[in-house]
Amino acid sequence: MTRAISLHDVSKVHAKGVRAVDRLSLDIHPGEFLVLLGPSGCGKSTVLRMIAGLEPVTEGEVYLDGTYANDLAPSERDIAMVFQNFALYPNMTGRDNIGFPLRIETPGADPAPRVDATARMLGIEELLDRYPGQLSGGERQRVAMGRAIARHPSAFLMDEPLSNLDAKLRNHLRAEISRLTRELGVTTVYVTHDQAEAMSLGDRVAVLRGGILQQVDSPRAVYALPRNVFVAAFIGTPRINLLRGVVRAPLDGAMTVSLGKQALRLPEPLSPDHRLLRVQQGREVIVGLRSEAIRIATPAEARPEETHITGLVEHVEFQGHEVLVHFNTGSSPALVPELEAPRPQPRPHRRRREGGVLGRLRERAGSLRAGPVVVLDEPTGPEQPPAPAEGRAPGDLVVRTTPDFVLRYGMQVPLLVDTAHLFAFDQQGERISPAPARLPDLDE
Ligand SMILES: Nc1ncnc2c1ncn2[C@@H]1O[C@H](COP(=O)(O)OP(=O)(O)OP(=O)(O)O)[C@@H](O)[C@H]1O
What we know:
Blueprint: E1 5-13, E2 19-28, E3 33-37, H1 44-52, E4 59-64, E5 67-68, E6 79-82, H2 94-105, H3 112-122, H4 137-150, E7 155-159, H5 167-184, E8 187-192, H6 195-201, E9 204-209, E10 212-217, H7 219-224, H8 229-234, E11 241-248, E12 256-259, E13 262-265, H9 272-275, E14 284-289, E15 294-296, E16 306-318, E17 323-328, H10 356-367, E18 397-401, E19 412-418, E20 422-425, E21 431-433
Parallel strand pairs: 3-8, 3-9, 6-7, 7-8
Antiparallel strand pairs: 1-2, 1-4, 4-5, 9-10, 11-12, 11-14, 12-13, 14-20, 15-19, 16-17, 16-19, 17-18, 20-21
Helix pairs in contact: 2-4, 3-4
The structure holds adenosine-5'-triphosphate.
Adenosine-5'-triphosphate binds near residues 14, 38, 41, 44 and 193.
Keywords: ATP-binding, Nucleotide-binding, Transport
GO molecular function: ATP binding
Pfam families: ABC_tran (PF00005), TOBE_2 (PF08402)
C-alpha cells in the first residue's frame, strides 16, 4: 500500500524563533516521486523529518492517507528513510543491516527471505556478508536502500542519498533509484539541492526558498514557466541570464525592452505575452533569457521572432560537445541574493547608505529569509562599466553554442535573441510574461 502525504500550512519554528519551514502546503499523491529542491538551509530536511515524525510540527497538520498524523510516532507511520550518510550499523553485516528493522517490526519472523529478495532486486547479493567498513560508498548506499525497501514501507523519504558519492556513481544510482521506486510504485519524497538530480528524478519538483514553497510543478513546467526569478535562476544550467531592462512602449513605434546600451525590439504583431508587458511601460523589469534562447547569427538570418543585439566576447568555456560564451552586452545583471557567489566589497563611493527603493530592496534582500525575490543590483551607468564580481562569471550574457565557432576574447559578435522565449519578471521577482495561462487577447 502506497500512501498520500498531505501537509497543511505546516511550519517549523526552532528555538530562538528560527522559522525553518513557513506555512507549507503540499499534497503528495500515492505513488508519486516528489523532489524537495532548494539551496542549503531552505528547510528541505526539516520538511522530510516532520513527515517522518522525527521532528514535531510547530503549526499546521500532517495527514497520511487523509488521517491526522501529527502525533504519530515515527514507527507508526510505515515510512522508511534513507539518509545522506547511509546510517548503517558498523558492527552488522549487510544482511543484518537490512534484516534489523524487519526483526524489530516482526519479532520471531525469519527476515532471510525478504532480505534475499531485496538483495536480488538491488543486485547486492555478494555484499550481504560484508561489514559497512568493507563496502564502497555506492555499495553502502545500496545496502541502505535495501534496508528501506525490505520493510515494504508505504513511503520512502530520501535525504540527499547520493550527495556523498562521486559524480559517476551518483548518475548510476540515480537511474537505479528511479527504476526501483517506479517498479515498487511507492510514494517517495526525495530531498536534494542538485537541480539536475531533481529534474531527472521527480514526477514533480517542489522548490523551497527560506522555508517557503515557491512552486511545485512537473520538471518541464518549473523550467518553462518558473513562477518567479528565484525558481528561474535555480533551475537549469547554465544559469538563466537575468538582465535589468526597462519596457518602452511608445504609442507610435515598436515596443522594446531597453537593456542599458542595447534594446530588444519585440516583433510585431506583438504576441499575447508581449502585450502583457505594455502596462510595464517605463518600469524596470527583469529579463530572463536562457542560453538556448540566444544564438550567434547575423541580423539577416533572423527568424520573425528573433531580434538582434551584439555582444563582446569576455570569456569562452570549452566543454567538449558545446561551448559557453560569456558576452558583455552593456547591460546590468539582476541578482538573486541567495544564489550568488560571495560578492566583492562595495566600492568606496557606494559605501554611503543606499537611498531609494533600490537601496531598500537590496538591504531587505540581505536580511530577508523569504520575502520577495529581490534581484536588483545597483544601476551601472555609462561611467560605471559593469565589473564582474568576484566568483561570478564575466560578462552579462551566457550563450551556448557548438564548438565549431571559433571565438576569441574581445570579438564583437552578432546575436539573435528569440523573443518568444523571453521571460519578464517584475521588481519583486514575480513572473509577468509569459502569463501562467494564456489570457484572452487584449485587443479583442
Ligand atoms: N535544531 C535547530 N535549531 C535551530 N535552527 C535549526 C535547527 N535545525 C535546523 N535549523 C535551521 O533551520 C533551517 C533549515 O534547516 P534544514 O536542515 O531543514 O535545511 P536544508 O534545506 O535541509 O539544508 P541542507 O541542504 O544544508 O541540509 C536552517 O536555517 C537551519 O540552520
